[in-house]
Amino acid sequence: MTEDTFNSLDGGGLFPRLQQRYGLRGNPLEMDTPFFPDGMRHHALEALRHLCGFGDMALLLTGGPGSGKSRLLAELVRSESSRLGFHRISSAAMVSVSALAKDLRQVARSGASPGDNPREAVYRFFRWSETRVGKGQRMVLLVDDADRVPTELLRLILDGFLAADRAKAAVPVFAGEDRLVTLLGIDDSAVTVHQVHLRPLTREEVFSYLEPRVHNAGGKVSELLSPARLSRIHDLSQGSFSRLKRVTPGIWLDIVSDVSKQKNVKRIDFRQFRLPALALLILGASWWFVSQQYDETVALDSEALPVPDRVRRSITIGPETPEDMSAVEDVPVLTEPVAPAEPIPEPEPEPEPEPEPEPEPEPEPEPEPEPEPEPEPRFIPKNAGKYVSIEQMRSRSKGWTIQLVAGNLEQTALNVISRYPSLPELVYTKGERKSEPWFMVLHGSYATKEEAQKAATTLPRALISGTPWVRTTEGL
After folding, report:
1. 434's torsion region: left (phi>0), alpha (psi -120 to 50) or beta?
2. What count of Cα atoms within 13 Å lies in the side-chain half-sphere of residue 449?
3. Are 38 and 205 in contact (CB under 8 A)?
4. What is the pLDDT of residues 8-66, one digit of tens each?
5. Going by DSSP bridges, is the β-strand pair 84-88/436-446 parallel, antiparallel, or unpaired?
6. In angstroms, rounded to a whole number, what is the distance separating the alpha carbons of residues 234 and 225?
7. In this structure, are strands 58-63 and 193-198 parallel, antiparallel, or unpaired?
8. Distance (Å, rounded) from C-alpha 462 to C-alpha 420?
9. For residue 472, how far is the Cα from the chain centroid?
10. Which of 67, 131, 245, 299 has minimal CB crowding within 10 Å?
11. pTM recorded for the entire structure
């Protein structure tokens, strides 16, 4: 079923027909609110909020067509505009290096002349964006549909971010399909880029998405989202929001069901069997002709010629052989058997000389012991008063804490701690992620999860976003 069929306006369009049939007050498929949190969408939103505010990595938001990437970015901008400064790079600016540099110059207003090197202008923008953190608002660059952007521009933005102070510079967020990872040349070992992937919706998640919208529109959930209809909606939408909005009206009006049944009925066209039947007929005729030739050949060979009588003759050669004894019957002659001659005994072989004893091999020298590996240098924290080793944190059996910031650079953690001197319980520790150092800023040590969640509500709004990460100290 094509998109034009679902959105056809013949007969007043599909929504008026849905209103007439089910008595709907509104179109449930055009309701953008409430934000859909299932399908790991809320987890992805929280990850973007946390890393845009305090992270030191570029971000990739990937997913199939219609998986909700643009909707997730819109929710991020709506909820975090008071804390973060967002700039969406337009598609017109992503056609050349000069156009990109011109767009970023307008944002920075750094006084750079239009005649400057475009590549240097991009690097200068990220250095300028570091100053925004001191004013209490970090910048975020949004690049939607990044998989359609020339790879040269994507790499230029990423290189400009990596060349600046990653804990303060504007965070680039690239949104696109899964091939975006290949375009940027990123592998699993990369620690400067973090990927957030949106998977397709399951059958239960499709129900969770449609159920509140059908209820708000005044429809009957048991009727519009019956098991049979829900199964067809999930199969045809393939877990995509955009396909879901196209196919659902047709399923509710039983349009998709009738067309799908007609597609499943296949008519047999016997004309397609004409060539195979002709080839089979020719093959059968050839086999019959060859078999007739073979039968005639076997019949001719079966006529056997007469076998002549065998005549046994004996011819004697010698000086006294009569002439008339040219043909005499065979007479058996008895002769005494001749004993076989005794074999001459072979001479006994001479005994071989005994081999001389081989000299004993000299003992090999013992290998020198390998030098012991030098111990790795011990980590020395720059702020020892605020540092707690991860072994000490994990030793707190059944304890809970609040993780606020994480990144590869120690300076990222130190910047956050120095920014909030009014919170003496802020500490940081050092772990490991993908064989690279991983610094985490933690707040407090609590006996229960409820106690930690209650304490998180008292933290400054600028330090947390949404629901803070309350986790056990053993899982650090």
Report:
1. left
2. 5
3. yes
4. 434 446 888 888 888 888 899 888 878 899 989 999 999 999 999 988 999 999 999 99
5. unpaired
6. 11
7. parallel
8. 10
9. 30
10. 299
11. 0.58
Q: How distant is the alpha carbon of residue 262 from its chain centre?
A: 36
Yes or no: say if 269 and 276 are a contact pair by the CB < 8 Å rule: no
Length of the chain: 476
Q: Return the residue matching tokens 């990423």.
A: 158
The verdict on whether omega for the bond into residue 34 sits within 30 degrees of 0, i.e. cis, is yes
Write the pLDDT tens digit of every residue in 84-121. 999 999 888 889 999 999 999 888 875 455 567 899 99
Beta-strand pair 193-198/171-176: unpaired
Cα 118 to the chain's mean position, in Å?
35
Which residues have C-beta within 8 Å of that of residue 272, sequence separation ≥ 6? none
Sign, CA torsion 226/227/230/232:
negative
Average per-residue pLDDT in the chain?
80
Read off the pLDDT of residues 259-287 as tens digits, 9 standing for 90 and up: 444 444 455 666 777 788 888 889 888 88
374-427 confidence digits (pLDDT tens): 666 788 888 888 898 888 888 876 688 888 888 888 888 888 888 888 888 889
